[in-house]
Amino acid sequence: MSDVITDPLLSISHLNAGYGRSQVLFDLSLAIPATGAVAILGRNGAGKTTLLKTLAGEITPMSGTIKLAGADVTGAAAEQRARAGIGHVPQEHAIFAKMTVRENLLLGGGGSPEKAAIDEMLDFFPKLGARLGQTAATLSGGERKMLAISRALLGRPKVLMLDEPTEGVWIGVIEEIADRLSELARRMSVILVEQHVELALRVAKTAYVMDRGAIALHGPADQVRDDPALLRYLAP
Ligand SMILES: Nc1ncnc2c1ncn2[C@@H]1O[C@H](COP(=O)(O)OP(=O)(O)OP(=O)(O)O)[C@@H](O)[C@H]1O
Ligand SMILES: [Mg+2]
User: Residue 116 C-alpha to ligand 2 middle, in angstroms?
Assistant: First the structure.
């Protein structure tokens, strides 16, 4: 299963990382292209969130390198990486629950986005427009995810990393989010961590399957979908 990506936007090489002395990620190498979505799959505890946190700069790797558009960002602080184009929609605490939707947007993407940029987000996720004065805590699961994605997009990232964007979202709204992600993937780089395997492999062109902190399977989404080993790696 080879899919050679020439000149990846994000190139991760032999990454080892964890929490304190407890190692969670083992020798991960991934190539993320400048457009299109890449799915990261794996059962609970496989290390998906830890990988995104390490790429975002919240966790300092033990070893390995992370390059963004050729520049080594392995040791760069989280804010520096965000400015360089790494957008992160974390699995938890992606929005300020006590603030209104409007305030959340005004603090999006590092702060003070232009009105036109916010309007663009409200066109992208029309459901948010009717909720501007509401506190984020009162939003539905789907609306929270839309707000979190909007906040990250306001930073105009080159790569948008999403950690479980359909978790806690009503089934009727999941497709809407999937459509928006497919739309984004046509013009930018998207890294999609998802429990909804079928959805992830539909949105993504390529996929990496993690097992106990290592890459167990990797290739074009269609091939990964049909690989008999996939279910084994995803089984609890
Ligand atoms: N703050 C932490 N300190 C110590 N260990 C942690 C911490 N956060 C996560 N871990 C451990 O790291 C491993 C990977 O966790 P991680 O959250 O990255 O998995 P995941 O693939 O995102 O799982 P899920 O699908 O449940 O979100 C787990 O064994 C977890 O217990
Ligand atoms: Mg996780």
Answer: 33
Cβ–ligand 1 contact at 54 (below 6 Å): no
Q: Count CB atoms within 10 A of the CB of residue 174.
A: 17
Ligand 1 atom nearest to CA at 43: 25
pLDDT digits (tens, 9 = 90+) for 190-220: 999 999 999 999 999 999 999 999 999 999 9
Ligand 1: which of 25, 49, 191, 192 to mutate, most ligand atoms within 8 Å of CB?
Answer: 49
Residue 145 main-chain phi, psi, to 5 deg = -65, -40
- The per-residue pLDDT for 1 is 46
Q: Report whether 99 contacts 135 (CB < 8 A).
A: yes
Closest CA to 121 of 38, 64, 131, 31: 131
pLDDT exceeds 90 at position 7:
no
- What is the structure's pLDDT at 2? 47
Architecture of domain 1-85+158-171+182-236: 3-Layer(aba) Sandwich (3.40)
